[in-house]
Amino acid sequence: MKTSEVDDEIYSDQIKEEQNEEEFKISFDNQSIIGSVILNRVKQCPKEFCGKNNVKIAQDNWIVCNACNTQYCFLCGNTLKGAQHFDKRCVRYTPVK
């Protein structure tokens, strides 16, 4: 195989890979239904060193971060030290939107 043919093949593979990436991107904006639903269910972990996005799957607003195990309220984002937070400040269960 000639050098130019190898270069053309590599270039072709790169273009295909870029096209595949573009096809699978999801637009996270309020214009799309999927983006809106996802944004309503995702909150970032309040710990500075973490910041991982976590998804609310059920009605419980008591979230445990998948990365650092920080417990926090989905509604207000405050870290939790027990269920008393939901007695005083926020509602423990809300429907998933």
Notes on the protein architecture:
Helices cover 37% and strands 12% of the residues. It has one domain. It has 97 residues and is of the alpha+beta class. The strands form two sheets. It has a two-stranded antiparallel ribbon. Strands 3-4 form a two-stranded antiparallel ribbon. It has helices spanning 3-24, 33-41, 84-88; strands at residues 42-44, 53-55, 62-64, 71-73. The chain contains three helices and four strands; from the N terminus they run ααββββα. The longest helix is centred in the first third of the chain and has 22 residues, at 3-24. A hairpin with an 8-residue loop joins strand 1 (42-44) and strand 2 (53-55). Residues 26-30 have low confidence and may be disordered.
Distance between the termini: 56 Å
Strand count = 4
User: Pairing-aware structural class of the strands and helices?
Assistant: alpha+beta
**H/E element sequence:** HHEEEEH
Strand content: 5-15%
Main β-sheet, in a few words? 2 strands, antiparallel
- The spatial strand order of the largest sheet comes to 1-2
- The averaged pLDDT comes out at 79
* Overall number of domains: 1
| Principal-axis shape | elongated
